[in-house]
Every structure is written in structure tokens, then in C-alpha cells.
Amino acid sequence: MRLLLARHGQSVWNQVRRFQGGMDVALSDVGRAQARALGQALRRFRPVTAYVSPLTRARETAEIALTGAGVPLIPLEELRELSLGEWEGCTVEDVRQQPGDPYAAWVRAPLDCPPPGAEPLPDVSARVLKAIDHIAGAHPNGDDVFVVAHGGVISVYACHILGCSFNTLWRLRIDNGSLTVVEPPALVTLNDTAHLSAAGPFAPRPNLSPGGAGEARARNTPGSDAP
Fold it and tell me: Residues 74-96: pLDDT tens digits?
């Protein structure tokens, strides 16, 4: 089995740097353009089935990317984005202005410094692995399988594949509309964005300097361009 893991296109809350987590938020126009570009990237594969998070931004990304392909879409509750508890609906700046800047602590160590009421990362990992096991059981013969989920979900699974701590979660860059390829237990490609033309209006923004690590990770974490 080859897993084609896509992060959904930009949502309207990604666009304004608002934490969404498990909340259901639609794609922006940029996100729909990213989904169309993702569809072009899929042409070099032969996905037989798509498994999608039940959240609108993931489902819409899959529907656009697979337009006309005749690939069935199967929702899996276990692929939903991780809950961010009390931060959902807040902007990054709202959280940064709280005493001690809990956002910066979370970016550095998301396992040790989670948002109040957030879903524990080991629990997220357990349900994501349950979903992957279900998919693997349905595709024992080396099929290409398209999975549309979220930045947090894909990062948690990548940590599992690489055997690294969940405190390194936001050191992995997973852009909106990106494609990550896994042939379990091997990580083949992480965050492929070649299909998001650098000349286009929906290309990933460049990395920020190391001195602004919180800002750089804000693109990947659920506070901005992330899930």
C-alpha cells in the first residue's frame, strides 16, 4: 500500500491565523486553487480510493482534487483534526497576549505544553494509527490510496513513522495542499509542494528566519495556514 497523504487547502480561518482544530471551517478561494493543483499532482499516481476527514475543508479538498476521476470517497472520523480545546476560535495573537505567551511554549513543546482542554497527542496518534490500520486492511495488494486530512494529523503520523517525540511535532513542515507519501513503514516524501507553482497566488510562503521560530511554525501549526 502506498499512502498519498494530502493536507487540505487553505481554509478561511487559516487565512486570518485563527485556530480551528476540530471546528468545521470551509476552504478559502486560495484553498480551492490548491486543491485543483493537488489534483494535477495526483495524475502520476493511481489512487483507487480516497479516505477523508469528515471536516468540510478536507472533504471539499478531496472532491475538487478528484473531480472526474471516479474515485470513491470514504469519510473516516479518526482522520479529523486534533482538538485545540480553549484556543479554538482564537487568533494566534489572542493566545500570544496571554500571560507567559503559551503559544510560544506550545510551538516549542506541544506534548508538554498543550492548549487547555486540547486532545492529548498520544490519543490523536492512537486514532490516526487505527485509521491507517483500517485502510491497510482494505488494501492489502499495494494499492495507491489517497488520504485527505490535516496538518496535525499528518505530523503526528510522521512522528510515529520517524520514531520521534511529539515535542518535535511542529518542526515538521506540512503546507496546505501539500502531498506526503508513505509506504509503511517508510516515509518516502514529506510536504511535496512542487505542484503549487511558485509563480501562482497559492504557493507556500517562504520560511522565516530561525530567530522567528514561532512565526515560522505558525504556518504549519493549527493557528494559521495550518489545520
Answer: 999 999 999 999 999 999 999 99
